[in-house]
């Protein structure tokens, strides 16, 4: 069973091919970072136009990498939400065209579920109960995947997504776009205890998190140093800010898993590529006797293989969609797909 997955929900035009649910045969990413960097963030119209130019060559390259022809495929999967509406439309229209031209079934994939399910390409079948930390540019939540196949959201951010906080602080520190990887790199040379930035809601009951207070504290501290004529050590600010976000995520995730009696944690989404988050989560999970599943960083950030993997799971359950498949920019992680 060979499934091609198309991902165009944000600024990566990406196509992956997965065989029999678990084997990655191709994973091609045509990044638009250079196009958006000069604007300091993703420009939706620019993203949609670039997807239009890049989709066909990216599909061709993925097929070449997999050594496969369109005839060899069993289905076309595509992210239909959540994401930027214009960007999603390009991928879904492309997938529908391909499905109509080849007669292959079309499968609409939930981008956030795909972030979680990509773990199966390196770690095999996720065996619920599993606790998932889903942290990306637009989403932050802690979700229980239950043994009966159900999903429950246990907590979420009440303001910014984790990736959004990284990107905003990086912009403030003039570190460029995208901010998460830039802060991750710079923080390696900084002191994470140089500033005692707040960890909002760390000890509050429940599993929700908040980043806006942390963001404000960082910005206020930078202004104070500027006004006082102090030299700002950007690496220390980056490391201290990152450590605050990491502490919040690790504490809340592991506590939620313990409360639920769940022994396996899976990390998902672009922020799960963060090296400090991965290291600290592994340390604490190990200490608590929990198993940590952390997909390789290149599978955490947006890619086509995750869409192909999630599409394969749906196909295996006999779920396909008609050409009436609609995009849903606000599609939720927990709820109908
Ligand atoms: O999942 P993703 O690739 O796209 C969305 O679905 O949003 O996540 C992108 C987010 C961006 O905010 C980016 O700055 C962040 O993930 N990110 C990171 C790292 N790599 C990507 N944040 C922290 N550390 C990283 N290494
Ligand atoms: Zn994503």
Descriptive labels:
337 residues, alpha/beta, 5-stranded mixed sheet, 12 helices, globular, binds 5'-O-[(R)-(carboxyoxy)(hydroxy)phosphoryl]adenosine, binds zinc ion
SSE blueprint and pairings:
Elements lengths: L1 E6 L4 E8 L3 E9 L1 H5 L6 H23 L8 E7 L3 H18 L3 E5 H7 L2 H4 L6 E6 L4 E6 L5 E6 L5 H11 L6 H9 L24 H16 L6 H27 L3 E5 L6 H13 L3 E3 L3 H4 L3 H13 L21
Parallel strand pairs: 1-4, 4-5, 6-9, 9-10
Antiparallel strand pairs: 1-2, 2-3, 6-7, 7-8
Helix pairs in contact: 2-3, 4-12, 6-7, 6-8, 7-9, 9-10
Characterize the structure shown:
The protein has twelve helices and ten strands. It is an alpha/beta fold. It has a five-stranded mixed β-sheet, sandwiched between helices. A five-stranded mixed β-sheet has the order 8-7-6-9-10. Strand 1 and strand 2 form a beta hairpin. The model has no long low-confidence stretch (mean pLDDT 96). The site of 5'-O-[(R)-(carboxyoxy)(hydroxy)phosphoryl]adenosine has 19 residues, from helix 6 and helix 7.
């Amino acid at each position: 069973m060979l499934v091609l997955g198309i991902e165009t929900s944000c600024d990566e035009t990406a196509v992956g091919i997965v065989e029999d649910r678990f084997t990655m045969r191709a994973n091609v990413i045509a990044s638009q970072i250079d196009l958006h960097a000069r604007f300091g963030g993703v420009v939706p119209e620019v993203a949609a136009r670039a997807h239009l130019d890049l989709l066909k060559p990216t599909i061709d390259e993925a097929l070449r990498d997999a050594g496969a022809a369109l005839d060899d495929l069993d289905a076309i999967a595509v992210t239909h939400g959540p994401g930027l509406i214009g960007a999603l439309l390009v991928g879904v229209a492309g997938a529908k065209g391909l499905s109509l031209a080849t007669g292959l079934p079309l499968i609409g994939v939930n981008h956030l579920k795909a972030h979680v399910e990509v773990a199966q390409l390196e770690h095999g079948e996720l065996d619920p109960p599993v606790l998932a930390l889903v942290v990306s540019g637009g989403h932050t939540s802690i979700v229980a995947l239950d043994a009966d196949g159900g999903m429950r959201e246990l907590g979420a951010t009440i303001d910014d997504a984790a990736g959004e906080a990284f990107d905003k602080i990086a912009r403030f520190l003039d570190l460029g776009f995208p901010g998460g990887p830039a802060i991750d790199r710079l923080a390696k040379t900084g002191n994470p205890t140089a500033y005692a930035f707040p960890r909002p809601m760390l000890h509050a009951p429940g599993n929700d998190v908040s980043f806006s207070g942390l963001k404000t504290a960082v910005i206020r501290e930078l202004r104070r140093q500027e006004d006082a004529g102090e030299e700002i050590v950007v690496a220390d600010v980056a490391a201290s800010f990152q450590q605050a976000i990491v502490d919040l995520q690790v504490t809340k995730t592991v506590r939620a898993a313990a409360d639920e009696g769940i022994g396996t944690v899976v990390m998902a989404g672009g922020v799960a590529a963060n090296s400090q988050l991965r290291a600290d989560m592994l340390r604490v999970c190990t200490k608590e006797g929990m198993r940590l599943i952390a997909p390789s960083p290149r599978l955490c950030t947006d890619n086509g293989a995750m869409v192909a993997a999630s599409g394969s799971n749906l196909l295996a359950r006999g779920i396909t969609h008609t050409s009436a498949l609609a995009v849903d920019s606000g599609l939720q992680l927990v709820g109908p797909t």
